[in-house]
Amino acid sequence: xKAKIQELTQQYINDxxxxxxxxxxxxxxxxxxxxxxxxxxxxxxxxxxPFQDGFVKTGILGRIEGKNPQKRIIALxxxxxALPINESTQLEFTSRNEGVMHACxxxxxxxxxxxxxxxxxxxxxxxxxxxxxxxxxAEEVFPGGAKLMMEEGLFKDYEPELIxxxxxxxxxxxxxxxxxxxxxxxxxxxxxxxxxxxxxxAAMPHTLTDNVLIASHIIVSLQQIxxxxxxxQIPTVLSFGKxxxxxxxxxxxxxxxxxxxxxxxxxxxxAKIKDKIREIATSIAQSMGADCEIDxxxxxxxxxxxxxxxxxxxxxxxxxxxxxxxxHMDIRMTAEDFGYFSQKYPCTFYRFGVEQVxxxxxxxxxxxxxxxxxxxxxxxxxxxxxxxxFMSK
Length: 393
Fold this sequence. Notes:
Elements: H1 2-25, H2 34-47, E1 51-55, E2 59-65, E3 73-79, H3 106-122, E4 130-136, H4 145-151, E5 163-173, E6 177-179, E7 182-185, E8 188-196, E9 200-201, H5 211-229, E10 236-244, E11 251-252, E12 255-264, H6 267-287, E13 291-300, E14 303-305, H7 307-320, E15 326-328, H8 338-344, E16 347-355, H9 375-392
Parallel strand pairs: 3-4, 3-5, 5-16, 6-15
Antiparallel strand pairs: 1-2, 2-4, 6-16, 7-14, 8-12, 8-13, 9-11, 10-12
Helix pairs in contact: 1-3, 1-9, 2-3, 3-9, 5-6, 7-9
């Protein structure tokens, strides 16, 4: 079956590349993937794969039924949205939508899943059960399409035993993939703190609350959460990248705004850290005569790769690609809304390399990002092989 899937991947690779290029030329922002959704449904109809649509307006759930469709159900997932970036790659199939670009590889993710669907549909008599195909909108914008699709009944009729997802990685060799068992990607919350007090003339500090100084004390003190409160074995980041104190050399403003990000790898400690941020910021402000408003916006949860599922996927990847092409990844403090799936179902989320050989690949979320299209052979083929192996196990 490995040889059969490799043969089918070669058979369909030009179609997969064409799909990727169409999507790349016609990117759409989060929650507005209408033409993208219509194009994917057109491709599924060509293959003869039934689907449900309308999840969060543009989301799609395809379905490939093998023999004995109720025996087991697994799901394969991709994301469809692009980013608000002006492309500067000068590709023949560069973005036609000014200010919008597939700078995170979602066009490749989607094309690879359609390609895997082509392959799996060809061999559906070789396995038992049902494979779901999740085409998800809005991975890039909170609250994220994964959460909203599930809230709208994504798995009401078909509930999977496990979910598999993949993502491009620019600094990994094309043809390679990477897995990380257990905690893999961090939660991502936004922290907003507003210090409010009495402003006034900076030369008369005794008549006011020094709200800039208070904000400074809060920022410095909150660093103790990571260095002294959270257990050292739990990766945690609390960073503040924005401070607005709209005063002047001789004016202390009445309000100072602070904004930052909280990342961690543990859901229990994620909740405790938020309580600690509120406690420390409030107590410092009050002790110095000011008030403090704290707004912590919950972002994506921790992405946890189920250990048993991931170790099986690594074994299957070793079979399909070889041990030399199957790498072990480290944790990442970036966030991904696939974490919502991983909080509810056994999941594995892995990376596939897209590094260019003779030109710059560029970084994710930049106008220069330009992936190696040879990676689509690996992405589609391995996804199909994983689907087949998990259905056959």
